[in-house]
UniProtKB/TrEMBL annotation:
Family annotation (Pfam families): mTERF
Domain of life of the source: Eukaryota
Keyword Metal-binding set for record: no
Spans annotated as Disordered: 140-159
Classification lineage: Eukaryota, Viridiplantae, Chlorophyta, core chlorophytes, Chlorophyceae
Entry keyword set: Transcription, Transcription regulation, Transcription termination, Transit peptide
GO BP term, example: DNA-templated transcription termination
Protein name, as recorded: Mitochondrial transcription termination factor
GO molecular function: nucleic acid binding
Assigned protein family: Belongs to the mTERF family.
Length: 159
């Protein structure tokens, strides 16, 4: 894995940062790591320095499945109006948008009344934790049989 990361233009300092943030990276399949790097270069059109930024800020991306997670996530973001020209900028500023949990955040924002046309701007400008877990909150549509609560795991009360 170290050779793969060095080949992706990560410095020894960058690799140390990846190891500290995500020690499991060095136990991952080299094939998966190569697929992720190819995805970032070829599908996302990121430069080497941009790939380095994504890997050091979100090293667990190395363990994501390109076909089952990353490409569907990109398609989902595009369905929200994130165009191919603005996708790299969004990923560089908020790499967690490629990770799990974004659907729950989008559903939460919809329930708050944020229009779909504003989702892209919200994703880019708001420091949401895209892996947040809301207590008593389901990503299912309202009225679908499950009730949601306005409180999150952070203890926010009703307004």
């Amino acid at each position: 894995m170290i050779d793969l990361l060095l080949g992706a233009s990560l410095s020894p300092s960058d690799i140390s940062q990846v190891l500290l943030a995500y020690p499991q990276a060095f136990q991952l399949s080299l094939d998966r790591g190569r697929e992720v790097l190819d995805f970032l270069h070829d599908d996302m059109h990121l430069s080497e320095s941009q790939v380095r930024t994504v890997l050091t800020r979100y090293p667990s991306i190395l363990n994501m499945n390109v076909k089952g997670q990353l490409r569907p996530q990109v398609a989902y973001l595009q369905s929200l109006g994130v165009g191919p020209e603005s996708l790299p900028e969004l990923v560089l500023s908020r790499p967690l948008v490629l990770g799990p949990g974004i659907e729950t955040v989008i559903t939460f924002l919809k329930r708050l009344g944020v229009p779909r046309s504003q989702m892209r701007r919200m994703l880019r400008s708001c420091p949401l934790d895209y892996q947040v877990h809301f207590k008593n909150f389901s990503a299912a549509a309202p009225g679908g049989g499950s009730s949601s609560s306005s409180s999150s795991s952070g203890g926010m009360g009703r307004y």
